[in-house]
Amino acid sequence: MSSIKITQAVGLGGANNLNDVKVVQTALNKLLKFIPPTKSLIVDGRLGSRPESSKTVVAIKLFQSKVLNMVRPDGKIDANGRTHRKMNEKLLTTLSKVTYKLPIASIDIQMLSDSEGSPRI
Questions:
Q1: Which of 53, 78, 98, 121 is deepest in the core (most CB within 10 A)?
Q2: Is the pLDDT assigned to residue 115 strictly greater than 60?
Q3: Is 14 exposed, middle or buried (0-12, 13-18, 19+ CB in 10 A)?
Q4: Residue 74 within a domain
């Protein structure tokens, strides 16, 4: 995921369109290392009947508090607002820092040495 696009606000007081909420939930799951002790969110596009106690809103507030250093996080992500832009920034930097570990070939040293029964050229 390189960056996210939402059409309307997500979170407290937001329009909370199903697809926009799913996009935010997916992005927050990718950014969990920035918002401990948050656990993976269920990507269902819903905030529930009480959005103020939604795990998604709690994760948004934690992101705003820990990453944006907001004193009073509002739990809302406006389309192209400060929180939205910072999420995209973090998603891009997280993606670019992915490292890949390649397997190291195991070589049997004894096979490479001359043994008594091997022919010489």
A1: 78
A2: no
A3: buried
A4: yes
Identify whether 121 is part of a domain.
no
- Residue 118 lies inside a defined structural domain of this protein: no
Burial of residue 63, with CB atoms counted within 10 A of its CB: 0-12 exposed, 13-18 middle, 19 or more buried: buried
pTM of the model as a whole: 0.77
State how far the Cα of 78 lies from the Cα of 87, in Å rounded to an integer: 11
Radius of gyration of the chain (CA): 24
Task: Tell me if 62 sits within 8 A of 38, measured CB to CB.
Answer: yes
Domain with 93, as residue range(s), is 10-112
If you average pLDDT over every residue of the chain, what do you get?
Answer: 87
Q: pLDDT for 15-63, tens place per residue? A: 999 999 999 999 999 999 999 999 999 999 999 899 999 999 999 999 9
- Alpha-helix runs per DSSP H in the chain: 18-30, 55-66, 82-96, 109-112
Q: Is residue 45 part of a domain?
A: yes
Total domains, the chain: 1
> Tens digits of per-residue pLDDT, 82-108?
999 999 999 998 766 555 566 665 555
